[in-house]
Design a protein that fits this description.
Blueprint (H helix, E strand, L loop, with lengths): L21 H33 L2 H6 L18
Length: about 80
């Protein structure tokens, strides 16, 4: 019947690490720069909506809110 069921073993030789060329490094720099640029393009509008929700509407309409929310202390008094 089944007599030859012994496992076959192969010797695994370690592979040499691949050499990275300068053109690969340039390619990776370009790819990562494009990824970071795309992430900023996508995330800034979301950030702007978030900071606009904490700033007064007049300041947002006047263009005073660009990167950081301008919070006035009188905004929270209407809620409580």
């Amino acid at each position: 019947m089944v007599e030859n069921l012994q496992p076959t073993t192969k010797l695994v030789t370690p592979k040499k690490p691949k050499r990275e060329f300068n053109s690969d490094k340039v390619f990776y720099v370009i790819v990562y720069a494009l990824l970071i640029f795309t992430a900023i393009i996508i995330l800034y509008p979301l950030w702007y909506i978030f900071i606009s929700s904490f700033s007064s509407g007049a300041r947002v309409a006047a263009g005073e809110v660009v990167f950081w929310p301008l919070i006035s202390l009188s905004m929270g008094t209407r809620l409580f």
